[in-house]
Amino acid sequence: MSAPVLLPGATLGVMGGGQLGRMFVHAAQVLGYRTVVLEPDATSPAGLVAHQHVATGYTDAAGLAELASVCDAVTTEFENVPADSLRTLAERLPVAPAAAAVEICQDRAAEKRHFQRAGVPCAPFATIEAEADLAGAAGLLPGILKTARLGYDGKGQVSVSTPAELAAAWQRLGRAACVLEKRLPLALELSVIVARGRDGTIVSLPLQQNLHRDGILAVTQVPAPEVTPALAAEAVGCAGRLAASMDYVGVLCVEFFVLADGSLVANEMAPRPHNSGHYSLDACDVSQFELQLRTLAGLPLVAPRLHSAAVMLNLLGDLWFPGDATLPRTPDWGGVLALPGVALHLYGKTEARRGRKMGHLTVTAPDAASARTTALEVCRLLG
Ligand code: ADP
Ligand code: MG
């Protein structure tokens, strides 16, 4: 792309109005950019803080035309923005990441084929698109059946052990295109966030170790306590290769499993900043959102430096419903903020619901043990 470098003062657009868009908007505003969000929801986290909100659907021709006319470049904050909308925008202005890369990340089967193309190991899998595919996939059991498209936070996934369970689960998922993955013995989970610039420069955030609960990210620790330098280098190398082989421009997150035998397996990619990278706002000198901004604007990329140990805790709507409470209660933020090194981020969502990501909190400290101690204290206070 021979697009001009966009300096502060330029206008940057985001497709999508969720918390990732909100944090991108904040990062862009810190550097003096104007921001525009396209998002149908009138009270979205990002729409509420952007300079301008185009309140239409992601495929609305008039909305896309308006976004293109007021922006100098556009990025996306979630992977399910229709790739054709990104293509339409790209006819008029720079768009990063590009539609083709986002399209790969939207489909688990395409994503796994990309892992294989780039020589990155992934779980043994089969695609299930018709009744006839079920029998051939039975050799992968016990496994996890996942819808190929639109799954997130463990939604659209069923654990299956027998051919009968597999057939029933596929029915339950509406006979949608799926992948069946072999269930792997996980020792731990980690993720790598890389940013790749227009000129092919790649930088990465320090690698994250992640703990999921019920399919949703719960805790991220950096430095990753159980990851050896050799394994970290391997994961960062894989993520860079995956980005380069898509000619990717933007921030890319790759989630990995470390298996019981110590081997590394890629799980999935996100063509945007990621929940596991939120700690970078408080523990690094350059955050994942500033990296997104720099790649979009064509600014130089410098490797982020971790200046504090960090523990990031996701704040789900469940915290608003302690015990069997039916009416929401505001958690004890006062108590939490009295602890050292706590950075509280709430996304401005108007309604708390169980399982909904309402915010996150990062504890930073000079060393990992202190960060963990404070994080445990936070958990005790929030119940
Ligand atoms: P989502 O898009 O919902 O994040 P993932 O594919 O990342 O879906 O799965 C969510 C979680 O489920 C993973 O972080 C991991 O804990 C578990 N999981 C997914 N696939 C496997 C697998 N093949 N073997 C074992 N655990 C898995
Ligand atoms: Mg995941």
Number of helices: 12
In the predicted model, the low-confidence regions spanning at least 5 consecutive residues are none
- The total count of strands amounts to 17
| CATH architecture annotation of the largest domain | 2-Layer Sandwich
Mean pLDDT: 96
Largest sheet: 9 strands, antiparallel
- What fraction of the residues are assigned to beta strands by DSSP? 25-35%
Task: Please identify the top-level CATH class of the largest domain.
Answer: Alpha Beta
Q: Spell out which ligands are present.
A: adenosine-5'-diphosphate, magnesium ion
Q: What kind of assembly state do the chains in view correspond to?
A: single chain
- Apparent shape: globular
Family: Belongs to the PurK/PurT family.
Enzyme class: ligase
Keywords: ATP-binding, Ligase, Nucleotide-binding, Purine biosynthesis
Catalytic activity: 5-amino-1-(5-phospho-beta-D-ribosyl)imidazole + hydrogencarbonate + ATP = 5-carboxyamino-1-(5-phospho-D-ribosyl)imidazole + ADP + phosphate + 2 H(+)
Please give a structural write-up.
By secondary structure, the chain is of the alpha+beta class. It folds into 3 domains: 85 residues, Rossmann fold (3-Layer(aba) Sandwich), CATH 3.40.50; 59 residues, 2-Layer Sandwich (Dna Ligase, domain 1), CATH 3.30.1490; 197 residues, D-amino Acid Aminotransferase, Chain A, domain 1. The protein is 30% helix and 26% strand. Strands 9, 10, 11, 12, 13, 14, 15, 16 and 17 form a 9-stranded antiparallel β-sheet that branches. It has a 4-stranded parallel β-sheet with strand order 3-2-1-4, with helices on both faces. Strands 5-8-6-7 form a 4-stranded antiparallel β-sheet, with helices on both faces. Helix 1 links the parallel strand 1 and strand 2. The structure holds adenosine-5'-diphosphate and magnesium ion. Magnesium ion binds next to loops. Pathway: Purine metabolism; IMP biosynthesis via de novo pathway; 5-amino-1-(5-phospho-D-ribosyl)imidazole-4-carboxylate from 5-amino-1-(5-phospho-D-ribosyl)imidazole (N5-CAIR route): step 1/2. Keywords: ATP-binding, Ligase, Nucleotide-binding, Purine biosynthesis. Belongs to the PurK/PurT family.
